[in-house]
Amino acid sequence: MSAIITTPKPAPAKEVVKDASMVKQKEMMAAHYDRLTSAAETGEKVASTFVPGNLNELLMCFGLVNNLPEVNAIQNGLRRTSGAYVLEAEKIGHSEDVCTYVKSDVGMMAKGNLAPNGKKFPNPDVLLLSYTGCFTFMKWFELLREQYKCETIMLHTPYMGDGKITPNMIEYMVKQLKEEVIPKLERISGVKFDIDRLREYLKKSVTAEEDLVWVLQSAKHKPSPIDAYFGGIYYIGPIFGAFRGTDDAIEYYKFLREEVAERLGRGQGPVTPDGDMGQEKYRLVVEGPPNYTSFRQFWKMFYDEGAVVVASSYTKVGGVYDFGFRHDPDKPLETLAEYCLGVYTNRSLPMRIDMLASYVKDYDADGLLINSIKSCNSFSAGQLLIMREVEKRTGKPAAFVESDLVDPRYFSAANIKNRLESYFQMIEQKRTSARTAA
Amino acid sequence: MDASLKTSATGPIVARAQALFEDLSFTAAREWKAAQPGRKVIGYMPLYVPREIIHAADMLPLGILGGGDQLEVIHGDAYYQSYICRIPRSTVELGVSGRLDFVDGMLFPSICDVIRNLSGMWKMMFPQVYVRYFDVPQNYRDEIGGNYYVNELVELRHDLAELRGKPITDDELHRSIALYNENRRLVRELYAFRAETPWLAPAAEVYLVLRAGLVLPVDEHSTMLRAYLTAAKTEERPRRDNCRIVLTGAFCEQPPLNLIKSLELSGCYVVDDDLLLVTRWLTSDVSTEGDPLRSLATAFLHHSESTAAKYEPNEKEKGQHLVRAVARSAAEGVIFAAPSFCDPALLDRPMLQHVLNKAGIPFIAFKYAENSGQMQPIREQAGTFADSIKLWSAA
After folding, report:
1. A123 falls in which pLDDT band (50, 70, 90)?
2. Sign of the Cα pseudo-torsion (A214, A215, A216, A222, in order)
3. Which one, of A200, A219, A210, A191, lies nearest residue A283 by Cα?
4. Would you say A245 and A57 are in contact if contact means Cβ atoms under 8 Å apart?
5. pLDDT per residue as tens digits for the range B313-366
6. Beta bridge partners of A209
7. What is the mean pLDDT of chain B?
8. Nearest 5°: phi and psi at A369?
9. Taking a C-beta distance cutoff of 8 angstroms, is the pair B344, B112 a contact?
10. Burial class (CB in 10 A: 0-12, 13-18, 19+), B13
11. How far apart are CA A396 and CA A384, in angstroms?
12. Residue in chain B lying closest to A146 (CA)
């Protein structure tokens, strides 16, 4: 008898409340999936690549459509199909210990490779292995290459082990772009590279990046008009995915900014799936990816208690923009290198600690919460030290919960809820003692 | 210590290697350092670092491979969740318990995200120690990955020179390269000897003798290798009716010594493996003329082992190193032994197994931790594998 993984579904809820920007984003994603799944008919060529180190502007120079296996795994998590895919991958020999994004992807392929719109994903014409901030990426695309038998282009991003970008790193990456990535993309796409076209896309990226940063930093206000983790995941979708460098992204982030500005003007907190959040009681910084198989249930544990996430590291995996970096159209290849080098998971542990500690201070947060992901060593290895160090530097309490990306077997709702409640009590206690001391 | 070690020709050599292996205070390295004022020790983790540069700076390269099954991890567990492999936690334990307090620098090679992140942790936990994440290119063109790597080596050379207080000359590097060339030749000879006559060079002995090279100065280790080879060739040992296997996946966190012994006891001669790859990462001699850093880079790009931590640009080549290892050592099967939660080994495994399937090479797979204590299931699995190979061969 084969094992069956079922994720307990919550009781039918009232209709999910969404910001207009969320609805818009959903439409953009749906249109993108339609574009991808109709690639065979339209003749468009497809490049699979990763969110960290995503070179969407470059791919667009060759008319290639961007497909992101991580985003597909997330979609499968949200749609509760990833559990069966993970199991399928384990059945065909993948270890229970490794990344569940990979297994969800491999399992999805084995089960028909269907996109969220129910149509079959096209086979990629090229795998752009942007090896940035995560060792698993390298193995993932070796595994996909084995299946698809298509050309794979490696772009190796050195790790910022010493907390700095050196000229050697930039030179290495630019050389790879010039002598490996671009010539191969030209050959595969049949389109000649035009650096001015790249510059134009990069200019558009900057406009969207400005608005994204404004939105993320709006959480410094009290109450915060956004949730920078659960809501933030919607906000980063277009810019981390297939839209950076497009007019669509400019339009979306302008729209989002206006929407958030209105909420800010009205003194409103974030919109949650159950409507307006109500009183903001706790302001948190969150480190680590969320769980996607119980995403709403996880989020509800926060907003039910009046907890809003004011800053998160996960919303920086596809680019860290809030410390000043913007794509620079005047140095098109160098800026792509710098972008890849600077993504969150490519930063050394001390850099990550600096970032998180500064978030706690700058966003006047009550503390740091870490959601540690069982199958993501890039994020998880070292998080206990991060927790202690941020606590020490900020004097604010930190807490630790554990779950997984898209494997429903590792989401223990009762356990997480228990820990969160204890954490909120801890914050209350800390506030009381601070008041007493004053 | 095994009493028989005292009486056989190889006995004293293996006994010395085993004593080094069991000494988690690294007494030999401490004594080496204390023997002359100003000496420095540079620790490194798997998979590979160019030890020649450390040696050329008159420093001792010291391989740090976790705590094995003899170290009780008390503090280390406070740094890692249960779903992360054991080598970083036991390495942290070695650090916080003061066992590495004589180590002046630590190199963390590019092997996986756990070791990568440990480099940052080490910087924070031991700020007085020189710490470097040792990145290597995944692009193997001389003018791209090669140039990047040479510049990384220039930085390492510069840092170590600062640490010792004077530059590292090309002549010093050439001398060190020559010594390590000799050491690698001896290691290759030992592996060839074992593949030829595995009953004369038991896997556990080869492992111990090899592992001594991670603690001893290179010339001393070469002497040990020569002595072992000479002694092993004179030894009379019974030839068992074992099958011949290649052990793979154990390139980082080390299996317990008992696991290696158990494989042979259950009927599998280990005729090749990927244990302690640093000792034979470079597969041919490095040039001792010209720019020494360029020579090390060329060797890394074009004459180094294949393993899961390295990108294979050519899909057709994926896993072929294993097929070649089987052919070279006349092995009859492959045992995949990977540490629990080891991303590189476990993500690579399905691809390698597909290649073996196509080549008609039988295999089994299991996981271990460096402190695994229960060997019975492994013995049963390996024993059944050995039996099945013999049955198939007979058919």
Report:
1. very high
2. positive
3. A219
4. yes
5. 999 999 999 999 999 999 999 999 999 999 999 999 999 999 999 999 999 999
6. none
7. 96
8. -115, 130
9. yes
10. buried
11. 15
12. B315
Q: Does any CB of chain B come closer than 8 Å to the CB of residue A377?
A: yes
Q: What is the largest CA-CA distance in chain A?
A: 71
Helix (H) or strand (E) holding A340: helix A332-342
Pick from A10, A6, A5: nearest CA to A295:
A10
ipTM entry? 0.95
DSSP string, A64-76: EEEE-HHHHHHHH
Residues 118-147 of A with CB under 8 A from B: 129, 131, 134-136, 138-140, 142-143, 145-146
Mean pLDDT confidence for A221-245: 97
Whole-number Cα distances in Å, A205 to A178, A395, B181: 21, 37, 51
- A290 Cβ contact partners less than 8 Å away, ≥ 6 residues apart: A229, A230, A233, A298, A314, A371, A403
Span A233-238, average pLDDT: 95
Q: Residue B325: exposed, middle, or buried by beta-carbon count in 10 A (0-12, 13-18, 19+)?
A: buried
pLDDT at A321 over 60: yes
A351–chain B nearest CA distance, Å: 9
- As a whole number of angstroms, the distance between CA A110 and CA A92 comes to 9
Is A156 within 8 Å of chain B by CB?
Answer: yes
Quote the DSSP letter at residue A331: S
Q: How many CA atoms lie within 13 A of B304 on its CB side?
A: 26
The CA distances from residue A96 to A18, A108, A157, A409, in Å, are: 36, 16, 28, 11
Q: What is the pLDDT of residues B170-190, one digit of tens each?
A: 999 999 999 999 999 999 999
Q: Considering only the beta carbons, identify the residue of B81, B114, B143 that sits closest to A402.
A: B81
Using alpha carbons only, what angle is made at residue B315 by residues B332 and B287, rounded to the nearest 5 degrees?
Answer: 80
| Per-residue pLDDT reduced to its tens digit, A184-214 | 999 999 999 999 999 999 999 999 999 999 9
What is the DSSP annotation of B65-111? ---TTT---SSGGGGS-TTS-SHHHHHHHHHHTTTTTT--EEEEESS
Of B84, B119, B151, which has the smallest distance from its Cβ to A168's Cβ?
B151
Handedness of CA A359, A360, A364, A368 (dihedral sign): positive
Q: Across the strands, what pairs with A131?
A: A156
Contact between residue B246 and residue B326 where contact means Cβ atoms under 8 Å apart: yes
A161 to chain B, any CB pair closer than 8 A? The answer is yes
Q: Of B118, B139, B152, which has the smallest distance from its Cβ to A180's Cβ?
A: B139
Query: Could you tell me the two tokens for B353?
Result: 């197994």
Residues B315, A131: C-beta atoms closer than 8 Å: no
Tell me the two tokens of residue A237: 């979708």
Show Cβ contacts of residue B337 under 8 Å, excluding neighbours closer than 6 positions: B247, B248, B249, B250, B255, B259, B365, B366, B367, B368
pLDDT at residue A9, as a whole number: 54
Taking CB atoms and an 8 Å limit, are B113 and A154 in contact across chains?
no
Query: What is the bridge-based pairing of β-strands A307-312 and A367-373?
Result: unpaired
Core vs surface per residue A172-203: b (16+ CB within 10 A) or e: bbbbbbeebbbebbeebbeeebeeebbbbbbb
How close does chain A come to B211, measured CA to CA in Å? 27
Average pLDDT rounded to a whole number, residues B290-315? 97
